[in-house]
User: Fold this.
Amino acid sequence: MIPHYYQHFCPVKILSGHNAVSNIPFELDILGCKRAMIVTDKGVVGAGLINIVREAFSDSDREIGYIFDETPPDSSNRLVNKLAKLFEKQKCDCFVAVGGGSALDTAKGANIVISEGTDDILKLQGNEIIKADLFPMIAVPTTAGTGSEATKVAVIYNEEKNTKMAFVSDRLYPRVAVLDSRMTMTVPPRLTAATGMDALTHAVEAYTCLQKNPIDDIFARAAIELVRKYLVRATENGRDEEARLGMANASLFAGIAFSNSMVGMVHALAHACGGVCHVPHGLANAILLPHGLEYNIASVPQYIAELSGMLGGSIEYMEVRDQAMVTVSLVKNLLSRLNRISGIPMRLRDAGVSEDKLPAIARGAVNDGALAFNPAEVSYEEALEVLKQAF
Ligand SMILES: NC(=O)c1ccc[n+]([C@@H]2O[C@H](COP(=O)([O-])OP(=O)(O)OC[C@H]3O[C@@H](n4cnc5c(N)ncnc54)[C@H](O)[C@@H]3O)[C@@H](O)[C@H]2O)c1
Ligand SMILES: [Fe+2]
Assistant:
């Protein structure tokens, strides 16, 4: 069904290939940039991935101005303020972010601070608050999950309030997304599984949420089919180039879908798990996805039923609600298969959450912006009940 109104926007140039990183200097040339600030973290440097980027720059006239490798898991307000100062001091004119969602969002956050000429990102919270043109950014994801390389979102941890804040603006889209299979081959199995489930959650929530639309449905569907084909393969064998590039594409497609449609209750709960108990984002989504889907069946059974076909289920002649329950089972099966291969936890209690924290997580979730797009309303008590089921 075509909604009464929808809009779709994705201004990101996409390079995808087994050696795509080598094209970065050429892309900087097109963007008119000379001196890049590389934003990354110690894990990415330790995996040898910055050497691949350095090599790409070595026979070009573009230069690496500075390599900032202090991104922590989850970028924070204080860190992006600090990075903004460094960018100016080092006289860089663009960002090349190389890492998972944390590094990509750190670059986005610092870019907001510099371009808006503010001293503190907390002054710019909210939707479409950013008015300045940002410095060009090239995003090189090294995990296949967040889709941040193709989204208008930066998720920044608020160190003052222990919450995760989402900055949302059309200006936050990177100019170029570079998907290169070499950049994700070093991701360990458990992180491959968790980040892949983040991508699946983006696609599933984009397909079932209130802002769903025909264009994002296409991206969500393509993402889910790629996850079905490649996530187990990439988790089993990290050196599988085809599976790695397949998952990188899945993550990007899901990012395009949710950047327009937005997400829902699974992300609201996952953000709160991250804020209260520091559960990694992908892992929280992986655990909560089947529970969130089951909760939403009462509101959008048809959409959830349709997902079962994309996930490989055979549903001929079934009632819609039964089909929707097949979807929930298929997601649970996928999680338990990933658990057997990689040890990824399947319950919140095994992911660093203690039972006494569930009320604080439920409170955080009902105040999270993602909940506004969920197809069903979720009260504090209902959020707590879903968390108990996932505990
Ligand atoms: N902006 C968006 O649209 C968006 C969407 C979803 C999530 N997020 C945010 O992204 C963050 C999570 O990102 P993430 O799941 O990609 O994890 P991450 O960026 O926090 O990285 C997790 C760990 O993996 C390591 N790592 C990354 N790539 C590696 C590689 N190729 N080889 C070996 N180790 C590697 C890192 O060093 C780090 O220790 C959260 O803050 C979340 O809120 C943003
Ligand atoms: Fe996510």
Summary: Strands lie at 13-17, 35-39, 63-68, 94-99, 137-141, 153-158, 163-168, 176-180. The chain has a mean pLDDT of 96. The chain has two domains: 13-183, 189-390. The domain at 189-390 is CATH 1.20.1090.10 (Dehydroquinate synthase-like, alpha domain).
